[in-house]
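User: Could you go from structure to sequence for me? I need the amino acid at each position, not a summary. Structure tokens:
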């Protein structure tokens, strides 16, 4: 018998948007090229630092306020994806990486250019990469299946029929405002507090709750070292609170309910990869170190 300890589990979060795109306008006065900062009209909480957004002009014109240095091919286009840092006044800076957006350093922001005419735009959140929740202490995931009583008057024993399944849970993490040292790998727990306050686009997220990670097996069996086992859910934050004590670290506690299927996933030691005709790996758009694997349910 093997005894698995929870010290090797972790939680991955993927940011989601409950609604579609946001329409607005970037005026010439909204762009401060010297500080690489711009703005547009959006409600508080629509964007938070670290969000990856897709910005497109709605009239087909180029996004002239972003210089050629901000594009992969060096050519200004009508739409692109960047990570954003949002300051206290609603000003936005664009970055090419998640960690740089969290840091918010003006010197590392993508260079902007002044514009002469207003550009109508649409903005939507386009985060696609799950990131580990940093400083996570514990998590709890509960599943529940409702039952309908179908007992008739003449029955001697009660009979029931199973119906819909639902889930709920909670996870706790040490509060951390910004952790630049993780180089974009971990998601700051402070995001859970921001996620609960989002009203326009909702507080949805996707999560992966790991029971077993690669490189860990208590019985020492070499054949199981690389195996991974995790729950995968879509959920919405229903409550987020802060536990503050004078003699202990500040903690963030978030409750959630699931909004879709609850899947128990497994990745075995042998990986099946989707390849191109050239036999090269299919890489993710924003993470060239990751490749697309065949799903194993």
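Assistant: Here is the amino acid at each position, in order:
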């Amino acid at each position: 018998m093997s005894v698995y300890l929870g010290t090797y589990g972790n939680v991955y979060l993927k940011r989601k948007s409950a609604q579609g795109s946001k329409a607005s306008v970037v005026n010439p006065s909204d762009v401060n090229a010297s500080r690489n900062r711009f703005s547009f009209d959006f409600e508080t909480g629509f964007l938070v630092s670290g969000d990856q957004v897709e910005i497109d002009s709605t009239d087909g014109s180029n996004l002239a306020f972003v210089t050629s240095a901000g594009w992969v091919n060096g050519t200004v286009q009508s739409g692109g994806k960047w990570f954003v840092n949002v300051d206290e006044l609603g000003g936005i800076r664009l970055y090419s990486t998640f960690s740089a957006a969290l840091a918010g350093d003006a010197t590392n922001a993508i260079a902007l250019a002044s514009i002469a005419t207003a550009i109508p735009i649409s903005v939507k959140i386009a985060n696609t990469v799950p990131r580990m929740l940093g400083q996570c202490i514990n998590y709890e995931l509960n599943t529940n299946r409702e039952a309908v009583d179908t007992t008739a008057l003449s029955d001697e024993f009660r009979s029931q029929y199973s119906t819909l399944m639902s889930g709920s849970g909670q996870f706790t993490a040490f509060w951390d405002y910004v952790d630049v040292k993780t180089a974009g790998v971990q998601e700051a727990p402070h995001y859970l507090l921001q996620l609960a306050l989002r009203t326009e686009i909702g507080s949805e997220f996707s999560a992966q709750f790991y029971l077993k990670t690669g490189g860990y097996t208590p019985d020492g069996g070499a054949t199981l070292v690389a195996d991974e086992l995790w729950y995968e859910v879509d959920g919405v934050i229903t409550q987020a609170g802060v536990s503050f004590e004078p003699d202990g670290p500040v903690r963030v506690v978030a409750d959630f309910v699931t909004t879709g299927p609850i899947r128990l996933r497994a990745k075995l030691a042998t990986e099946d990869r989707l390849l191109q005709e050239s036999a090269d790996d299919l890489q993710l758009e924003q993470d060239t170190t990751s490749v697309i694997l065949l799903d194993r349910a």
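One structural detail worth keeping in mind: The chain has a mean pLDDT of 82.
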